[in-house]
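Troubleshooting log. The previous structure file for this entry was overwritten by mistake, so regenerating from the original sequence record. Sequence copied from the archived sheet and checked twice against the printout by T.R.
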Amino acid sequence: MNLLSRLFSNRQDTLAPVRPLWHRVVEIAREKPWYAEHGMADTVPGRFDTITLVLALVLLRMEREPELMESSVRLTELFVDDMDGQLRQTGIGDIFVGKHIGKLMGTLGGRLGALREALPQGDAAVAEMLARNMTLIEGAKPIRVAVAARALQVALNATTSEDLMAARIAER
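Regenerated output below.
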């Protein structure tokens, strides 16, 4: 929704109910252990990869409950809005933003599919998937990221729908 639409619209913000969850996803992805202990690269691509990893885990949790499907769509819309704004801040113009957003959505979709397949197979499978798909620092051990991601998955699975929507994700 562009600025003029926001200023002159009387309709309710349909994304408002999931904004706290989106902010929590970003907050979790910015936690220092991802970078200082687990080996994610503290770069723009590394931070994007960490956000999509956390978001994918949250979306997979939301898939379990049909009543959260609409919210998961709204959460994905917030991801797109945020990435759109980030791209524009880096100087990417209107003509190219859509193409970049398409690539970013493809990355998120790929991450969802890869995690959906790897998570039930355990830490080694998740580590292998992460080594192929994530921006890690040189010498990083993907198993560390895998263990952290699976710990987050366990925490998300222990989180009620109400707590999830209120962005109260259990500690890992």
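The longest helix spans residues 94-118. Archived copy saved in two places this time.
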